[in-house]
Design a protein that fits this description.
By secondary structure, the protein is an alpha+beta fold. Helix content is 27%, strand content 26%. The two termini are 46 Å apart. It binds alpha-D-glucopyranose (GLC).
């Protein structure tokens, strides 16, 4: 074993940029979600997976079934020795041949498989160029024997060409049409029926799939096939397809098959010789364009250039913020994998093995887009404007919507809309770009199409906030509507009477922030500032008067007024969000803080991180929702729900409880948990959506990796709260939570047009120097001069554990926070 954090299944490369899997039988599929732009592919450590354009469920190129045990659907490559007849595959699936070596390297934007079987060393790299709608499979075969080897390479996958799953296969296959174009070495495929109404394309069920797919080879194919039965054989299997065993493809194409794609390339390799080739799989809007792409990448130089562009794309994007700390697990997650996960899987692909997805969640991708702030804030801006365009004139929004069809779900989950001003405030803090607030965006009309009514982004946010004033309960807190952040509370507010305490806390935080934003506008609206400040204070009082349950905050009330997340309940007595956000939004008064923290420590902070609620619901409760129907201890029902767990880390940082914050962080760090793979099970390089809680027999087992809102949040909290470098309205704050045992760290970060090279260390007294000169306080100035600025921060040894206290004078709410301790 070598590399970082080795286990029996693999390790990180020394620079943390690759995860190297050294055997195929990982406890779950350990996958890579590769999506630099519109086109994406997911590939597991055994070579299974699927590909799509724009929408991973509505526009799936290749067929896949969500079977995480067999993990046996994908696009595969076989090798056959023409003399011995031996057959194996370049990935472990589908042949599962035991070779001398098998390595899968998941990297940023690519996955490479290295294998050695029957004295043939192979390297297969799958990658997606950032600017073309295809994937490239680069293959290198080396004959390590002395004899001449005559090899056949076969590719194989099933065309899906549209919405997935297309379970009614006998129906769908009748519309697929394939063609072979010898001059391009390419199979083409299209579908004469589209069952979804693609926006602007026309009627569903009476129009074509608006693409032409292609599968091409750089080496002239010897044969091709598009008939599944001819390839596999009647009752055949992907493990031993008839055509591969026989060594030839029938050349069938047309409209009358169960459509697959397979190419056959013959490669002869003298003893010791090596050869390279490339296969492509992709799609374009027209046949001509498909052929152009297929032809372009037959040229090895074009493949090499695409590889370079791909590497540069990710390096540029991820490299904009880098940290060096004494903790390699922290650095690996922060510098590489969290950003990649959030961008590739959550924002661009919106898909993963646990949730094939494809839609936009109004709250989800808005939150995810926070990851871009220090990297390329123009992407956050674009996301904000996209979501604003999915908001109705009354301020409410679609809960989620599908790109391609532009259809959405209108359901009153009353927190959704509030994420717009929340993210806008963060964007403003980062960029100071107030002009974006004047950007005009159309609202959705009642028919779900863009209406004639347009308003500035500022107005969009104001309508979201102001929609609450008519939706307050007699207690003075927001009605939950049909649910809030916790999707599983799906039945609690059917009559729209239920109250959400967490939502009150969230709203209070947004109101406070909006007052700060308003203050800095060219012409602040003083009446709004007064109104929002007053409402925030009123709501703080209301939450404290009506929803303090003795030692923690109640989570919500049902339509009939009974509480959940209360000591009066048998199950679900305490919920995490109503406690963490009481801290984050400065709702909890100093006198209650010790009790609140005591409750968190006692009920919420468990061995593998903070759980979403405790204890788990044991029996379904129809008056709460599907949350209570999950197996106890899983997902939101008492599991560690990573998205919510990260807010506990932030809350502890905000209180200056450094060691507690780091302890929580480490408890669920996938890299650290991944050191025990048999127990933890899932990938050690990305965050899981959840980890089973103590009420599950599998306490500590991870699940739902990749497609989770926790990635962007953990990245933010790691850099802004644990390392403490965060944008504020008037500058960049440096207020680290330096854990015991750390002497310091370095960070390179952009902020409003300048680069800050921050060097934090321990010393005899607190001191901040900017470009060599002493600087007062911990708020760094806005330079905006395109230059690099050196920032040296010294933290006095004695006080290093309580940075919040030291900085108390520098932030409005800090005095309260420090007094609470
Ligand atoms: C899922 C949803 C997200 C929700 C969370 C908690 O991740 O996509 O919108 O907030 O679950 O229920």
């Amino acid at each position: 074993m070598s590399g970082l954090f080795p286990t029996r299944y693999g390790h990180f490369s020394a620079d943390g940029r690759e995860y190297v899997i050294t055997r195929p039988d990982t406890p779950r599929p350990w996958v890579n979600v590769i999506c630099p732009g519109r086109y994406g592919t997911v590939i597991s450590q055994v070579g299974s997976g699927y590909s799509w354009l724009d929408h991973a469920s509505f526009n799936r190129l290749t067929r896949w079934e969500q079977d995480l045990v067999r993990d046996a659907w994908g696009r595969y490559l076989y090798v056959r020795d023409r003399d011995s007849g031996r057959v194996w595959s370049l990935t472990w699936q589908p042949v599962q041949a035991k070779g001398a070596r098998y390595v899968c390297r998941h990297g940023i934007g690519y996955t490479t498989f290295e294998s050695s079987c029957d004295e043939i060393e192979a390297r297969l790299t799958v990658f997606v160029p950032p600017d073309d709608t295809l994937e490239i499979w680069r293959i290198e075969l080396r004959n390590t024997s002395r004899r001449k080897r005559r090899l056949d390479v076969f590719s194989y996958f099933e065309w899906n060409l549209g919405p997935s799953p297309d379970t009614h296969r006998e129906f769908h296959r009748l519309f697929i049409e394939t063609e072979y174009v010898a001059s391009a070495g390419a199979l083409l495929a299209t579908k004469r029926l589209n069952t979804i109404a693609e926006h602007g394309v026309g009627q569903p069920w009476n129009t074509e799939w608006p693409h032409v797919a292609f599968h091409a080879s750089s080496v002239r194919p010897r044969g091709h096939e598009s008939d599944k039965e001819r390839f596999l054989g009647r009752h055949g299997s992907v493990a031993r397809p008839h055509a591969v065993v026989e060594g030839s493809l029938s050349g069938t194409t047309g409209k009358w098959q169960d459509g697959i794609g397979a190419l056959h390339v013959a490669l002869d390799l003298p003893g010791g010789a090596a050869r390279e080739m490339a296969l492509t799989l992709g799609l374009a809007d027209t046949r001509a364009e498909a052929l152009r792409l297929a032809r372009r990448y037959r040229d090895p130089a074009a493949v090499e250039r695409a590889w370079t562009r791909m590497r540069r794309h990710w390096d540029r994007l991820l490299g904009a913020l880098e940290v060096t700390t004494p903790d390699p697990a922290f650095d690996t997650l922060t510098n590489t994998w969290l950003k990649y996960q959030a961008i590739s899987s959550r924002l661009r692909g919106r898909t993963g093995y646990f949730q094939p997805g494809g839609a936009y969640g109004f709250r989800d991708q808005l939150q995810d887009s926070l990851v871009f702030l220090p990297l390329a804030p123009e992407h956050t801006r674009a996301q904000i404007l996209l979501h604003a365009a999915h908001q109705f004139a009354d301020g409410t929004a679609w809960h989620w919507w599908h790109p391609l069809t532009e259809e959405g779900l209108k359901k009153p989950l009353n927190d959704d809309l509030l994420w717009l001003p929340f993210v806008v405030c963060h964007y403003q803090r980062e960029t100071g770009d107030f002009a974006t607030l004047d950007e005009r965006v159309a609202f959705l009309g009642a028919d779900g199409r863009p209406s004639r009514e347009r308003a500035t982004l500022y107005e969009h946010c104001r309508r979201a906030i102001d929609s609450f004033w008519t939706r307050l309960s007699p207690h003075g807190v927001p009605r939950m509507g049909a649910g809030d952040w916790n999707d599983g509370l799906s039945a609690i507010g059917r009559e729209l009477k239920a109250e959400s305490v967490w939502l009150a806390q969230f709203l209070i935080g947004v109101l406070d922030e909006w007052v700060e934003l308003e203050r800095r506008r060219a012409k602040p609206d003083r009446a709004v500032m007064r109104h929002y400040a007053r409402e925030a204070e009123k709501m703080r009082r209301a939450v404290n008067r009506h929803f303090w349950d003795g030692a923690w905050y109640v989570r919500a009330t049902k339509d009939d007024g009974t509480p959940i997340g209360s000591r009066k309940n048998r199950d679900g007595r305490i919920y995490i969000n109503a406690q963490t956000w009481a801290i984050l939004s400065r709702v909890v008064p100093a006198r209650r803080l010790p009790a609140l923290l005591g409750s968190m420590e006692k009920h919420i902070y468990k061995k593998y991180g903070p759980v979403a609620l405790a204890p788990a619901y044991r029996t379904p409760d129809a008056s709460i929702g599907y949350l209570t129907r999950y197996a106890p201890g899983t997902r939101e029902n008492g599991g560690l729900y990573t998205h919510a767990a990260v807010w506990a880390v932030q809350a502890e940082c905000a209180l200056g409880r450094t060691e507690q914050a780091w302890q929580l962080y480490r408890a669920f760090s996938p890299i650290l948990r991944g050191r025990d793979p048999e127990h933890y099970a899932v990938e050690p390089y990305v965050t899981p959506g959840n980890v089973d809680g103590p009420d599950s027999p599998h306490f500590g087992r991870g699940g739902w990796t990749w497609y989770t809102g926790s990635a962007a949040w953990l990245f933010r909290i790691s850099t802004e709260w644990l390392l403490g470098v965060r944008p504020e309205w008037d500058g960049l704050r440096v207020q680290p939570c330096l854990p015991a045992g750390w002497n310091g760290f370095r960070m390179r970060r952009r902020f409003r047009g300048a680069t800050y090279r921050i060097d934090v260390k321990r010393g005899d007294r607190d001191e901040v120097r900017v470009d060599g000169d002493c600087h007062d306080g911990t708020l760094l100035p806005v330079f905006g001069d395109g230059r690099v600025h050196r920032v040296e921060v010294t933290l006095a040894r004695a006080s290093a554990a309580t940075p919040a206290a030291r900085a108390a004078s520098s932030r409005r709410a800090r005095p309260k926070a420090s007094a609470r301790r």
